[in-house]
Amino acid sequence: MNRTVKLLGLSLALLLACFPFPSQGRKTSPKGLPLSVAHRGCWLRENNGGYYIPENCPAGVAMAARYGYPAVECDVRYTKDSVMVLMHDGTINRTMRLAADYSKIQEPVRVSETTFAELREKYVLESSDPALRTPIPTLEEHLLACKQYNIIPMLHSSVVESYPMAQQILGDRWIAFDASEPAMCEARKVSDCLVLLDPGKDPAEKTVERLAGIGGRCGMSTMDYRMLDAAYIRTVRAAGFEVQASIFPAPHEQRAVHDAVSIQLSDFWWFQTPGRKPAWKRREKVILSAGASHSLSLESPAEFAALTLRLTFSGTLEVTLTDWRATKTGWQKVPVTYTLHRDTPGEEVIGLRLYKSVPEVKITAAEGPVAVNVKTTGYRIF
Asked: Cβ neighbours of residue 193 under 8 Å, at least 6 residues apart?
């Protein structure tokens, strides 16, 4: 074994040791709520916009286990010399730095035009923690981390060579996900894993037909929140297939939950409460006239935390959460307003994963009077 391989193995061992919390295999999605998948892993950002936990890396797998996510999505690319690595963008510039001095990379560095050795030796992942400034991870390293932490990897990949590797390491306990139907058919040839096809603009009936052609455990996934309405979801699920909402912009991810998607791929949505002891609970009942608001005073149970908000009511409410979000101009505090409507009394659930943050919550009645039972729960992750 050469020196480079030894150093890479040591880096991965150090990285995984940072978060020694293997999943206990507990149920993580309460009845009636979709399976949660952490988009590009359970990455975390500092309030200055930089990463603490980078995207697409084994540290994101370990942190997903901490937060209780049963699955993580990852993006697979080939290097110039055909090594499968994890990277979302075509270039490494957004998520990596120069290894020599941790400065920003000035010229575009394309994964497909750079050898694996050069990528591993010259660049490191961006992180506020020097211990996590590791080289670009291989798909194999990522899959081994998923196996260690009992996490299901969702391979957003048309690289068909990635499928046999996932099957060898994890058996059928992985997910294939892409817009390429031929690639998804190849995944089915090597595994009985769940296959998720992005159907593009196809109507629900055509999507059902395409999924039936792939066969086995199948479903569809889309980023088009305008297309994926309640009727579309009902049609696909009634045919026995899964429906995934993929990183819908807030507040549409909550609407997808209300409309009964079976899988939620998200950067922020969180509801892995079973088996967790709350750090605190608060219950209150308010009656709001039309246009009246009620603000919640919250607290952070820990640096790594999560919050669930359960509202039982009938009528129409606007719930505004103000929290740190990534925007085109940087990492800022952004208000997001969810419009929730129920014709009959029932419960709506909103969950958020938090890191060094406490959201501000305001509930407003769009019409009134509306009686609202409010239950907020804070969770200490560790």
From this structure: 166, 167, 172, 173, 174, 175, 176, 187, 217
pLDDT at residue 31 is higher than 90: no
Q: Which of 179, 175, 170 lies closest to 155, judged by CA?
A: 175
The residue among 72, 62, 307, 23 whose CA lies nearest residue 177 is: 72
Whole-number Å distance between alpha carbons of 273 and 221 = 25
Provide CATH code, domain 280-380.
2.60.120.680
The predicted-structure confidence for 87-135, as pLDDT tens digits, reads as follows 999 999 999 999 999 999 999 999 999 999 999 999 999 999 999 999 9
Going by C-alpha positions, the residue among 353, 352, 357, 376 that lies closest to residue 296 is 376
Stretch(es) of the chain classified as CATH 2.60.120.680: 280-380
Domain 24-266 class in CATH: alpha beta
Closest of 80, 38, 3 to residue 271, by C-alpha: 38
Summarize pLDDT for 298-348 with one digit per residue, the tens: 989 999 999 999 999 999 999 999 987 777 677 788 899 999 999 999 999
Distance CA 203, CA 279 (A): 45
How would you classify the pairing of strands 280-288 and 370-380?
antiparallel
In contact, 81 and 116? CB cutoff 8 Å: yes
Domain ranges in the chain with CATH number 3.20.20.190: 24-266
